[in-house]
Design a protein that fits this description.
Elements (H helix, E strand, L loop, with lengths): L2 H8 L21 H10 L2 H4 L19 H26 L2 H4 L5 H14 L8 H13 L12 H8 L3 H10 L16 H7 L28 H11 L18 H22 L5 H12 L14 H26 L1 H6 L13 H16 L2 H26 L4 H7 L4 H4 L7 H14 L2 H11 L9
């Protein structure tokens, strides 16, 4: 199949919409993929990222990034990556613009929207929050509620995945909210580009070298929905027909690259400006990425090392964008054939320096004592909230549990009797993962009697 035909199928403006849709959109003003971006921005789940951990849990400094600012920055990087790649693909395949009306901006908007949403399903306390949820479902306390689950359903919970929770945020509508299913009704292409791990939780691929196989991208509740998207876009299938397991949409590699660039460089910048990493050591590492000509004479003089770091960060991001987009285009054949499955950032010449930055970030930033203390507390908070919510849903005969059920928004627990135990549990995890860091702590304190609400 020619590249033009493959890209024409991969870049689809189809979305889950109401059959009685009355409005039409002028794509010369706002394209379908820009609509995706706008819908994510205005969603409540995206707004809550402003109080979810990126580097430092509940930072006191207003400089430190949250999940919200990280997602916005990743979307900016992703838009540029998408546009550079899109421009070249359209030059190679002019029929895409002439016959399919696909524009350079479409590639940028798709990647930007997927980047904007890439952390939208993350629970409180960052990646340690995922571990805390998994840990609860591994505990004895959770076992009585999981007896009727299939192996795949149990695996969803025992290896809880923020990526799958994010796909659910984007695609699921609570029956109490609306009779129109499909969540934010995003385009199939944006949803596929968002999905870095296009497989269900089973089978687990042990010791895989393929980056898209290391995690999973959707729960059992959404696997049929993803299967529909994959078939519509012509994603290449992996494994047998019994499992929902596909190769990535090629543009998902650009989402991954944008995220990698931002967290490697900008998280490191946070650590430097917080004093967790000696700034002279950090500046030297950043300069190694640029590999400037030693004879190059700069007219810029910095009187504040923080400003110099910001300048270096801007130049580095521009350099990495150019190199990652070039790598994508150089590997286009393999990407479309499903034989390429490694992060673009791993192929960069500066990878040894980026690895050194990563090691230093883990040691000095991510494993900083206050971070570890709050993450450890997060295990208690999220485990405690999950246990209390599970009992409220599955043991409603207790007066204590009924009281707690009244604190949970009804759309998470008011479900038809026909709903399975697994679906009830997923709704509980929806509630807990939706909480911001501070909201989770406040609720935990209240239900444990550590802190009582003020009475007015």
């Amino acid at each position: 199949m020619q590249h033009t035909t493959i890209w024409a199928k991969l870049i689809s403006k189809k979305r889950f919409e109401s059959a009685d849709k009355k409005y039409t959109s002028d794509e010369s003003v706002r394209g379908e993929f820009q609509r995706d971006y706008d819908r994510i921005v205005f969603s409540s789940a995206f707004r809550r990222l402003q109080n979810k951990t990126q580097v430092m849990p509940m930072p006191e400094s207003d400089f430190v990034h949250t999940r919200l600012t990280h997602s916005l920055e990743a979307s900016v990087v992703g838009r540029t990556l998408g546009r550079i790649v899109g421009k070249s693909i359209l030059e190679r395949n002019p029929a895409l613009a002439q016959e399919k009306h696909i524009q350079e901006a479409d590639f940028g908007d798709i990647v930007a929207a997927a980047c904007l949403a890439h952390d939208i399903g993350n629970p409180p306390f960052g990646h340690s929050g995922e571990d805390a949820i998994s840990s609860y479902f591994e505990s004895e306390a959770a076992q009585p509620f999981m007896q009727n689950l299939t192996d795949a359903q149990r695996k969803d919970l025992l290896s809880f995945e923020g990526n799958a929770a994010g796909f659910r945020v984007l695609t699921y509508t609570y029956p109490e909210h609306c009779n129109l299913s499909g969540g934010l009704s995003l385009t199939y292409t944006t949803l596929a580009t968002f999905t870095k791990y296009p497989k269900e939780s089973l089978p687990v691929i042990e010791h895989t070298k393929h980056t898209s196989e290391k995690k999973y991208g959707f729960f059992q509740t959404e696997k049929d929905w993803f299967n529909t998207i994959a078939q519509e876009l012509g994603l290449l299938r992996k494994g047998d027909s019994k499992t929902v397991f596909y190769h990535r949409h090629p543009l998902a590699f650009l989402v991954e690259a944008a995220d990698d660039i931002c967290y490697r460089i900008i998280d490191f910048e946070d650590g430097l400006k917080l004093g967790l990493v000696p700034h002279r050591q950090g500046i030297e590492l950043l300069k190694q990425i640029l590999k400037d000509d030693p004879n190059r004479v700069s007219t810029i003089k910095f009187y504040d090392w923080r400003e110099e770091i910001g300048y270096l960060r801007a130049r580095i991001i521009n350099k990495l964008i150019e190199e990652c987009s070039a790598l994508f285009l150089a590997n286009e054949d393999a990407l479309l054939a499903g034989t390429f499955d490694t992060p673009l950032i791993n192929l960069l010449d500066c990878k040894p320096v980026l690895d050194e930055i990563k090691i230093l970030s883990v040691k000095k930033i991510y494993r900083n004592k206050p971070v570890l203390e709050i993450e450890a507390a997060g295990f208690e908070v999220l485990g405690g909230l999950l246990d209390a919510c599970m009992k409220a849903v599955f043991l409603p005969e207790s007066k204590r549990h009924r009281k707690l059920a009244d604190l949970i928004p009804t759309h998470y627990i008011k479900l038809p009797d026909s709903v399975s135990d697994y679906e009830r549990i997923i709704h509980i995890t929806d509630f807990v993962t939706s909480l911001t860091d501070q909201a989770a702590i406040n609720l935990f304190r209240k239900i444990k009697g550590i802190e009582l609400p003020r009475m007015y």
